[in-house]
Design goal:
Elements: H1 6-10, H2 18-32, H3 41-57, H4 60-69, H5 85-91, E1 116-122, H6 124-129, E2 131-142, E3 158-159, E4 168-173, E5 176-181, E6 190-191, E7 206-217, E8 226-229, E9 245-251, E10 258-260, E11 263-271, H7 272-277, E12 279-284, E13 290-295, E14 304-307, E15 323-330, H8 337-349
Parallel strand pairs: 1-9, 11-15
Antiparallel strand pairs: 2-7, 3-6, 4-5, 8-9, 10-11, 12-13, 14-15
Helix pairs in contact: 2-3
Amino acid sequence: MSKRDFYEVLDVGRDADASTIKKAFRKLALKYHPDRNPDDPAAEESFKEAAEAYEVLSDADRRARYDRFGHAGMQSQGFGGGANVDDIFSHFGDIFGDIFGGGRRSRNRAARGADLRYDLEITLEDAVAGCERSVELPRIQDCGTCDGQGVKPGAEPSTCGHCGGRGQVSRSQGPFMFSMTCPACGGAGRSVADADRCADCGGSGKERVVRTVTARIPPGVDTGTRLRLSGEGESGERGGPAGDLYVVLVVTPHDRFERNGDDLHTEITIDVATAVLGGEVEVVNIEGAPERVRLPAGVQPSERVRIRGKGVPHLNGNGRGDIYAHVRVRIPKKLDRKQKQLFEELAETEL
């Protein structure tokens, strides 16, 4: 398959200066970076194509040769189709200084463990009062038998004979030398004989355990609130720090209250006489305690009364929201003779 013109690849003019060419390559490298496009062969090919174009056009002599002879003048030069992304990262390390924190992390360097997420359901009462909940969390951590070393007690891992413990090997391509991840040790820089592998983890240095952690839930949380438990995620690689656990809360629906922000809404049902004459009624708050409120005479259905300071506590602040009690009037379906008479007399007095 024929190659695209290098100027077309970088989307620059043939008179572009070195700064413009570098800027164009950085833009494409960020767009097609393998860490941003995992398991995307098309993006990786675009990444390699941009790197090859930049390698030629950023060098004055090679650019002049390319301008004169085109791709035919680049035989046995450049990355071509045989280079991998690790070769590119090694060769252009300065270009990737601020892309994803560098080209690609060396596989024998300490790495932070993965963060974990746990969705936890709580009641509205828990959200109002605050509580503690125990969470049983499966996670990967360093093997307790070999302390993450992957070898049985008394044995020691040996230095990888293929890379000499560096985790990388060099190979030549045309006039250049490139570094790549050691295929023997996977970049770890060490090897473990089969007879010396830890029996509990099989030499991986990791084990799956179920750990119980306590989540302290403050008053005022709501669905979607995230609690961060530092260091409770998966253990790091090669001595790196553990990740964090994020507990994401889900507040289950309540049978009497509906939440709106830090306010709570409920319903109270009154009889016709109370609606007409007014009177004192009782509303049970979220804690289960009675609140006495007075309704004015002539209160209408769907009107609401406010009970201040009895709603949800303000998260990380002072005070609480309110309770709003929405009035429902209970209309009797059956009347005895006296009740019916009284209503008829009342009807005669209405205009």
